[in-house]
Design goal:
The protein has helices at residues 2-8, 39-100, 146-155, 167-180, 190-199, 206-222, 225-233, 245-253, 262-271, 284-300, 306-313, 328-343, 358-376, 424-433, 467-473, 476-486, 488-498, 519-530, 567-582, 640-652, 698-706, 774-779; strands at residues 116-120, 126-131, 350-354, 383-389, 395-399, 441-444, 463-466, 541-546, 552-555, 597-602, 608-614, 619-625. Helix content is 39%, strand content 8%. A hairpin with a 5-residue loop joins strand 1 and strand 2 (126-131). It is of the alpha+beta class.
């Protein structure tokens, strides 16, 4: 018992020998440090674990959350690297694959630029450029410095720093297009654009893009930056069929790229983005708005200052002319038609020096438009043509129609029409070669040749008249009699000798100009009268050289023409044709202070009206009519054509000292045979009218040809069937419609009568038809 009591009060031993359990320095074991057995110990351990578990979970959660974020980033980086490696491998594979489909780099070469034909006037100024590009190539240092600056600023600002491909530009374009949702910017450099233009098709495929990059890298290794830029500027498309800055500058500003100002350079640079949509010929406002953007970009990049921007904005280019407008393009087309026959195929840039005087060309175009604008509509005349040449045949001005932009058909060169009475000088010249003189007398009276009965314009007759008077009044009956005297073959031979190249029909109606000829060849044949009897072959090409002038490919040889008329006949024909202007049907063509000669011509129902005349300086032919053959309202050669001829010739001779025509307006005789006709002309002193021949009536003349009878209806061959009229070119280049030409000139009863000139109304005081009186018949008026 006692033992149990002591046991109950047992004091645990202590290392220090004193009871200080509450002292902080005592060493003791807590429940967690003891190895206990039994349920009581488990409960203690479980309780301790529960108190520490939330804190561990919180600490683990924080560790796991931080580790997951950085792990995700690490994962992204990892897979990006993996994707980049595979993408690089794939791109390299594509490059190798598409590169293998290209020719070997050792065979790469810049393709030749399509050859350009530069056509210039006598003063060296450019008339037009012909060829695929539309303009010549010029060196970078020769063009306006604003042009390359504007192109680099708006198209490739890092051109001089990248290696052919601009990664920064590509990234910028990608981001911009991605944010806007559509294509706004392109990432191609100027080098890439040049590579595409030189070697590749415009299709948008991965293969083409890869090849473009490879070619751009090759260009950068092969050429300098300036060379690449020059090639680009001379080949890039600027709209309106203009390739290169020179073609575009002449197309839109009518000047060389050497002379382009800042505003114009900005407009050109703006066109590259969308040449057709931004063309100033199509939408001037859009073109100018784009030019403003280019100017601002140039300022931002330091190429120009604010003051220069203001100046450029005040120099906004005017609206461009319509595509290829101006009569000079008729000349350019004529040149291009003739070049293959002179030098063969054009394989390099060449320069064609022409005989054209640009001042005369503009005046010729203006004169036709003035007359058409004033009287064309009310007289149903819609078209006109003009050709003017000097005594050597050099064409100084040529206008093929009213407006080249509306119709490119050249009515001065390509079209063939009946010349009407303007063909009569060849009939008269043939008569002089056979021995007649300007004073030979014929009877202006009704005459019948087969089934053909030619009549004068007014259906009046003058009785006995001299050849000079008959030509001045354009009497049809006398011309018909002369063909009988000459013989159609002789007339045709003379016309061909003087320069008519078209086929002429050997029939009686040739006296009235029924065989069709071109205005150019007719005018050239007249020049033989003007120059004293030498052939004047119409020509427009003077010389052809390479672009640098180092090689002459062609030079004309028309400086030593053959004589085709005797001096006496040329002088007499000039004097006779002076009467046409001074007293006859061509009074509207008179020139103050200048001797002038010429002849009017009008075809059936006024379908065609012509005036061909000359001074000692120029021979000029003018035609008025309609492309579809529609008759005009009583328009004769002495009307609209003579007026246009007079306006042009006054302008062409302004400031020149008047000089007389060959022969000085006096009749003369050749004491010897002319060498061209069958009979010598009656002898006479130069400048003195020869005596009248005995007999000189039509009866006596015909008696020597056909016998005593003057009825030649049975001796002269029947007139052929009426020839079909050569159709005119339609205004807009479509199929050529046949023209239904009604012949109602009063030449007989049958439809098979030859068409002919209906003559020219004889000018009379007050504008009334002149009556033929008995005194007129007696005096031969």
């Amino acid at each position: 018992m006692a033992g149990r009591g002591k046991s109950r009060d047992r004091i645990e031993p202590s290392f220090s020998g004193r009871d200080d359990r509450d002292d902080d320095d005592d060493f003791s074991l807590d429940a967690d440090d003891r190895v206990v057995r039994g349920r009581s110990s488990k409960r203690v351990a479980s309780k301790s674990s529960r108190t520490r578990q939330p804190e561990r979970r919180r600490r683990g959660r924080r560790e796991r959350e931080g580790g997951s974020f950085f792990g995700f980033i690490r994962l992204i980086v990892y897979w990006c690297i993996v994707f980049g490696i595979w993408a690089g491998i794939g791109i390299a594979g594509l490059v190798v694959y598409y590169g293998s489909r290209m020719p070997s780099a050792s065979t790469w070469a810049i393709p030749e630029r399509p050859p350009n034909v530069k056509i210039t006037a006598v003063d060296g100024s450019v008339i037009a450029n012909r060829g695929t590009t539309g303009g010549e190539a010029i060196a970078l240092e020769d063009m306006s410095p604003y042009i390359p600056e504007a192109i680099v600023a708006i198209e490739d600002r890092r051109f001089y720093s990248h290696f052919g491909v601009d990664p920064i530009g590509l990234a910028r374009a990608f981001v911009t297009n991605l944010t806007t949702g559509h294509m706004v910017q392109g990432g191609s450099t100027l080098t890439q654009q040049l590579a595409k233009n030189l070697f590749l098709s415009p299709e948008r495929t991965l293969e083409r893009k890869v090849q473009e990059v490879l070619l751009a890298l090759w260009l950068e290794q092969k050429y300098t930056k300036d060379q690449i830029l020059a090639m680009y500027l001379n080949r890039v498309f600027f709209g309106s069929n203009a390739y290169g800055v020179e073609a575009a500058s002449r197309r839109y500003f009518n000047k060389s790229a050497r002379d382009v100002n800042l505003g114009e350079a900005a407009l050109l640079a703006g066109l590259v983005k969308a040449p057709s949509r931004l063309s100033p010929a199509r939408d001037p406002q859009a073109a100018n708005a784009r030019a403003q953007v280019v100017l601002q970009t140039m300022r931002d990049q330091g190429y120009i200052t604010d003051d220069e921007v203001k100046t450029a904005m005040s120099q906004t280019p005017a609206k461009a002319k319509r595509y290829w407008s101006g009569a000079g393009h008729y000349v350019a087309d004529m040149v291009m038609d003739q070049l293959p026959g002179l030098i063969g195929d054009v394989k390099e840039d060449i320069v064609v020096d022409t005989t054209i005087d640009k001042t005369l060309e503009k005046r010729a175009e203006q004169s036709l438009n003035d007359v058409l604008g004033k009287d064309g509509a009310k007289l149903d005349a819609s078209q006109a043509a003009l050709v003017s040449l000097d005594g050597t045949g050099a064409i100084r001005a040529l206008v093929g129609g009213r407006d080249y932009a509306d119709s490119q058909f050249n009515r001065a060169v390509t079209a063939k029409r009946q010349p009407g009475s303007s063909f009569k000088p060849f009939v008269y010249a043939a008569a002089l070669e056979k021995g007649l003189t300007p004073f030979s007398v014929f009877n202006d009276a009704p005459i019948r040749i087969g089934d053909w009965t030619p009549e004068n314009y007014e259906k009046k007759y003058n009785g006995e008249v001299t050849l000079a008077a008959a030509l001045a009044k354009s009497l049809n009956t006398v011309a018909a009699q002369l063909v009988i005297y000459d013989g159609p073959d002789q007339v045709i031979k003379l016309a061909h000798r003087l320069g008519i190249e078209s086929e002429l029909q050997p029939n009686a109606s040739i006296a009235l100009g029924t065989s069709e000829v071109s205005l150019t060849e007719l005018t050239g044949a007249y020049a033989a009268f003007m120059n004293g009897g030498y052939k004047a072959t119409p020509h427009v090409i003077r010389r052809v050289t390479t672009a640098d002038g180092s090689k002459v490919l062609y030079e004309n040889t028309y400086d030593n023409p053959p004589r085709v008329l005797s001096e006496a006949i040329a002088a007499n024909m000039n004097t006779m044709m002076m009467g046409v202007i001074n007293q006859g049907t061509g009074k509207s063509a008179k020139l103050s202070g200048w001797q002038a000669a010429g002849k009017t011509g009008t075809t059936q129902n006024s379908r065609d009206a012509l005036f061909v005349g000359f001074t000692s300086n120029l021979t000029t032919g003018v035609w008025f009519g309609n492309d579809d053959g529609k008759p005009m309202k009583k328009v004769t050669g002495g009307g609209l054509p003579a007026k246009a001829w007079q306006e042009f010739m006054v302008a062409a001779h302004k400031g020149l000292s008047p000089a007389p025509l060959f022969g000085n307006g006096q009749f003369m005789a050749d004491p010897a045979n002319s060498g061209f006709g069958d009979q010598p002309m009656a002898s006479a002193e130069p400048g003195v009218a020869p005596p009248l021949e005995e007999p000189t009536t039509i009866g006596s003349i015909l008696s020597g040809v056909f016998g005593e009878s003057t009825d030649v209806s049975g001796r002269y061959p029947q007139a052929p069937d009426r020839p079909k009229r050569q159709p005119m070119a339609p205004t807009h280049g479509g199929p050529i419609p046949p023209a239904d030409v009604a012949q109602d000139g009063g030449y007989g009863d049958g439809d098979a009568l030859p068409p002919g000139d209906i003559g020219e109304p004889e000018p009379s005081p007050g504008g009334r038809p002149r009556r033929t009186t008995l005194l007129d018949l007696i005096m031969g008026q």
